[in-house]
Amino acid sequence: MPFTRWVHLELRKSVDTLAGFWLLVVIAVLLIMIEGFFLLVGLTSDDAGLSFTIFTRPMAYVLQPMVATLTIMLVTSEWGQRTAMVTFALEPRRSRVLLAKLVAAFTLTLALIVVLLVVATVCAAMLGAVDGSSFEWDLGPGDVVGLVLFEAIAVLVGFGLATSILNTPGAIGAFPVIAYAIPSGLGLVGLFWEDFRSVGRFLNLQSSTNPVLTWSVDSGEDWARLVVVLLVWAAVPLVLGQLRVKHAEVK
């Protein structure tokens, strides 16, 4: 079977199940609601200096756990719903199936980013029509690339967790621990242990990926921190997950 057909099948699986379909619907509705809230705040605010990025950057953080959850469900549904036997019987090369799932996850994430940008553009146009003198259209190509890369990192982390754990609740629960609990814990330890502060930054997923979103990875330390967190929270789980899926018993 051609690889593109496998990707198409994985995309179909994401909407064929009730959980996958309603997750996509909830994400789209939530994006529209939050963007509408930002528009309402902009329309009722007397502060000048509003810009297009108020509709995109905050939403990037809202979208981050959602695309990770979507990715996790793409992978773990095979094992939770006991369809892995059929899938791997049709395609014994498990790594090929995993790659198709990863491509499908990136495709769905790009689609959600497009929805985000379309809704943000509509809201920004409405706000600009009311307050065009002070509204700034400051979204450049770098901001779009940064947004895509920021969400792609969440996809990779979620994919690594999914393949390593192979359990939907466990993997979904592990993502906020890595994305939010561990960074908070590292920051708290750094407050009381000054020597640990610089080391903790290299394990902090949020602070190390924030420059990607704002397209401001300038210094060598920024790049070093980004590489380390990608190795620790994405590359290592991906390798371990690949090995586990290859050797896992299909029931």
Shape: globular
Low-confidence stretches: none
What's the total count of β strands? Answer: 0
Helix-strand makeup class: mainly alpha
Regarding quaternary structure, what we see is single chain
Please state the average pLDDT score. 84
The domain tally reads 1
Task: Count helical runs.
Answer: 10
Percent range for β-strand residues: under 5%
Residues in helices, as a percent range: over 70%
In whole angstroms, how far apart are the ends?
Answer: 23 Å
Strand/helix succession: HHHHHHHHHH
Largest sheet: none
Cα radius of gyration in angstroms: 20 Å
Please render the helix and strand layout as text.
Elements: H1 3-16, H2 18-44, H3 57-80, H4 84-90, H5 94-130, H6 141-165, H7 168-192, H8 194-201, H9 205-213, H10 220-247
Helix pairs in contact: 1-2, 1-5, 2-3, 2-5, 3-5, 3-6, 3-7, 5-6, 6-7, 6-9, 6-10, 7-8, 9-10
